[in-house]
Design goal:
The protein is mostly beta strands. 14% of the residues lie in helices and 40% in strands. A hairpin with a 3-residue loop joins strand 6 and strand 7. It is rod-shaped.
Length: 133
């Protein structure tokens, strides 16, 4: 048999501010339905959410997957590169497809050109680099 709740009773509910299932005090009841609760931890008053009904947060793609995708793209771009291979210089002029040797990031391929900048794809990720284009 379900226990009838009234204002002032303690209940476990999902706190919308703390984002956890915590102890709350029932503030308002409409018939047999709990309408509002007050969190004993943070003091916020909000609608009642049953902790069993709250969805778990989605998992974010692992960083390893993103690194593998960037590495695969880098290998493809490197094999298709048709430009000169040269050491990176901030004052250098580059074309799309040029292979750049950077002393910190390693070998990269120029993918996009902007005014005084270019996007260079390195093994780990794409970086915006200075140039004199």
């Amino acid at each position: 048999m379900l226990e009838k709740r009234s204002a002032g009773d303690n209940i476990e509910a999902h706190c919308t501010k703390c984002k956890l299932a915590l102890d709350h005090v029932v503030v308002a009841v409409d018939g047999d339905t709990i309408v509002k609760v007050k969190c004993k931890t943070c003091g916020s008053t909000h609608k009642f959410k049953n902790p069993a009904d709250v969805k778990k947060p989605r998992t974010v793609k692992k960083k390893e997957d993103a690194v593998k995708a960037a590495e695969t793209l880098w290998e493809t771009c490197l094999s298709e590169a048709r430009g000169k291979e040269r050491t990176y210089d901030m004052g250098g002029k580059y074309r799309i497809g040029d292979v750049v040797l950077h002393n910190t990031f390693g070998k990269g391929v120029v993918r996009k050109l902007y005014i005084n900048k270019c996007d260079v794809l390195f093994k780990d990720k794409e970086r915006l680099m200075a140039s004199s284009n």
